[in-house]
Structures are given as structure tokens and as C-alpha cells.
DNA sequence: GCCCAGGAGTGTG
DNA sequence: CACACTCATGGG
């Protein structure tokens, strides 16, 4: 019998708006009351903060949901320890208090891979729409009005013509090729690789270059040393660190500077750069 | 209507 | 290695 399940989690610090609304993941949506809802695996989940407690509703409930939510929000990351290390950077140091609750998320590898291949040369609203279209047409229903992201098998069964009608543009070809070159076994093998090998392996896949490989390494495979660089990060690195150049040059700068938690540094800077473009507010500065 | 987007692939100097 | 060009499209 499918029933709803409610429970609390201790995850602190945690800011749901910063964590779920900044382009790490694309299927959560925010209600007017501040709660966030989205499909997580085979569960439709709604979460909200009450003080330092995270209140969770899941449908259907079941064993492992608690661990699933905790894992997705990387509850075991010691933010204070991470920030203590990143505070060695004077630019980050001044703004860290404002992003304490911004956590890296841990997403499903396959969903993350397809999502960030779709994300190439598109803005976040459009990425969200492409992913919703694929899910609503080809994913499994898990609750009224909610469907899971399509599995590899489900997406592989979609005809070329059908996929072409999903508004993916030239990305449709990448998705088809991904289905042919990646399966669960390939992903399991990639989980075992050290970061640099994983990165190179990902870049062998169709539609995956430097930036997508780093996003999938970071969010899908949980490699916190990844440092994805898009146009927003180029601006941030130029403005705050006076760094310009090729992807490889910028990346090596970031790896040297931020080390094993470069991914957190990246998300902090990315969040800040978009915030600045939005309403002029700014957490980090170089002054 | 215009501008731009969590870029990648390919070819050329 | 570093650029230049193309790809296809919809949201702001």
C-alpha cells in the first residue's frame, strides 16, 4: 500500500533556497510558503525548514527514504570544516557566513549526465523545461502530476522522431548517442575511478566536454574537488581574481587555490555572481 | 525583435 | 596549444 511518510532530519546549516534554487539540480520547485517539492528517486518529496530541523514528507514512504534525502543534501558534509579551509582564501573569507547553508547536492548519475548535456548553451529556465518535458513524456509516474526522470532503458526506447519533438534542439542527438554509449554498468565502473580518470572518461562521451564533465563529477559523482567553469564563473574569476584564459588555465588556478573543496568554492562564487547580476547584491568582493 | 544561455565538436593557424 | 566557426532555440 502506498502511503505518505513524514519525518525530520537534522541538517544544519541548510538553506533550501540557496541549495535547490541555484542550478545544481533542475526538478525541485519552491512553493509560496518556502517549502520545496520534487521527485527524488521513486518518491515525491516535499521539504521545509523549521528552525534547524528539516521536515520531510515523502510519497510513497518506504525504507531508505530518510537516507536518500540525507544523502541528496549531503548531510554528512561538515560545512564548518570546509569553510574553515576555504577561509584561507581572503576573497571567500569575507562572504562565507552568507552561504553557510548553501550545500552541494548529490544527484543521480544518469539524470545528472543527461541534464548537464542538455544544459549546454541554454539558460536555466529552458534547461528546467527540457527536463520536465522528458520526464512527463517518458518517466514513470510516482505521484499525481509527478514523474521520475526517465531511466536509461526508458530513454533508449524513445524514437528519434519522438525525441526531436521535445524541444531539445541539437542536444537531441547527444541524448540518443548517450543512450547508446552509457548504461548502468558504465556508470558503476565510473564510480570506481579516481577523479582525474573519471573526468577523462566522461569527456569521451558524446556532448561531454570540460564543463559538463566537471558538473557531472561534482553533482552526480560527488567529487568535491571538481570546479566547473561556465560563463558566470569566467566573470567571477575575472572580477574577483583577475584570472582570464582557457578552461584549463582557469581550472588549474582554481584547483591550486581551493584544493579538495574547490566544488564548494565554485558553488559559492557561482551563486554570488548570479545574485549580483540579479539584484546587484553581492556577497563576495575583492576589496 | 534582440540578446544570451551552467558549451561541445570540428577545423585551422 | 589557441582561436574561429558552427550548431538550434526559447526564455528574459
Give an account of the 3D structure:
- The chain is of the alpha+beta class and 287 residues long.
- It contains 15 helices and seven strands.
- The strands form two sheets. It has a five-stranded antiparallel beta sheet with strand order 1-5-4-3-2.
- The protein is globular.
- It binds a DNA duplex (13 and 12 nucleotides) through helix 6, helix 12 and helix 13.
Please outline the helices and strands.
Blueprint: E1 5-10, H1 16-20, E2 29-30, E3 36-40, E4 43-50, E5 53-59, H2 65-72, H3 79-86, H4 90-93, H5 109-118, H6 124-138, E6 141-143, E7 146-147, H7 152-156, H8 160-164, H9 171-181, H10 184-191, H11 195-203, H12 210-220, H13 231-241, H14 247-258, H15 262-279
Antiparallel strand pairs: 1-5, 2-3, 3-4, 4-5, 6-7
The structure holds a DNA duplex (13 and 12 nucleotides).
Which blocks of ≥5 consecutive residues have pLDDT under 50? none
Principal-axes geometry comes out as: globular
Question: Main sheet: which strands, in order across?
Answer: 1-5-4-3-2
Tally of helical segments: 15
Characterize the biggest β-sheet. Answer: 5 strands, antiparallel
Keywords:
alpha+beta; 287 residues; 15 helices; DNA-binding; five-stranded antiparallel beta sheet
Short synopsis of the structure:
Helices cover 49% and strands 11% of the residues. It has 287 residues and is an alpha+beta fold. The radius of gyration is 19 Å and the shape is globular.
Amino acid at each position: 500500500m502506498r502511503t505518505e511518510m513524514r519525518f525530520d532530519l537534522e541538517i544544519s546549516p541548510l538553506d533550501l533556497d540557496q541549495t535547490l534554487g541555484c542550478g545544481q539540480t533542475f526538478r525541485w520547485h519552491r512553493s509560496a510558503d518556502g517549502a520545496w517539492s520534487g521527485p527524488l528517486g521513486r518518491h515525491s518529496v516535499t521539504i521545509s525548514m523549521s528552525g534547524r530541523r528539516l521536515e520531510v514528507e515523502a510519497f510513497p514512504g518506504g525504507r531508505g527514504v530518510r537516507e536518500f534525502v540525507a544523502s541528496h543534501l549531503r548531510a554528512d558534509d561538515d560545512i564548518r570544516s570546509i569553510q574553515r579551509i576555504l577561509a584561507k582564501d581572503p576573497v571567500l573569507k569575507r562572504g562565507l557566513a552568507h552561504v553557510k547553508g548553501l550545500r552541494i547536492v548529490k544527484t543521480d548519475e544518469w539524470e545528472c549526465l543527461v541534464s548537464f548535456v542538455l544544459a549546454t548553451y541554454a539558460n536555466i529556465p529552458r534547461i528546467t523545461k527540457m527536463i520536465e518535458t522528458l520526464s512527463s513524456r517518458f518517466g514513470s509516474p510516482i505521484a499525481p502530476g509527478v514523474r521520475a526522470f526517465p531511466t536509461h532503458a526508458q530513454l533508449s526506447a524513445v524514437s528519434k522522431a519522438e525525441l526531436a519533438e521535445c524541444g531539445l534542439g541539437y542536444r537531441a542527438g547527444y541524448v540518443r548517442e548517450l543512450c547508446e554509449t552509457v548504461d548502468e554498468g558504465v556508470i558503476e565502473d565510473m564510480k570506481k575511478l579516481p577523479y582525474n580518470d573519471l573526468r577523462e572518461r566522461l569527456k569521451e562521451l558524446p556532448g561531454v566536454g570540460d564543463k559538463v564533465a566537471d558538473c557531472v563529477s561534482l553533482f552526480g559523482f560527488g567529487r568535491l574537488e571538481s570546479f566547473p567553469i561556465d560563463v558566470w564563473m569566467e566573470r567571477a574569476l575575472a572580477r574577483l581574481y583577475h584570472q582570464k584564459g582557457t578552461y584549463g588555465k582557469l581550472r588549474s588556478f582554481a584547483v591550486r587555490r581551493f584544493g579538495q573543496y574547490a566544488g564548494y568554492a565554485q558553488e559559492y562564487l557561482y551563486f554570488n555572481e548570479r545574485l549580483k547580476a540579479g539584484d546587484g547584491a553581492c556577497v563576495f568582493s575583492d576589496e
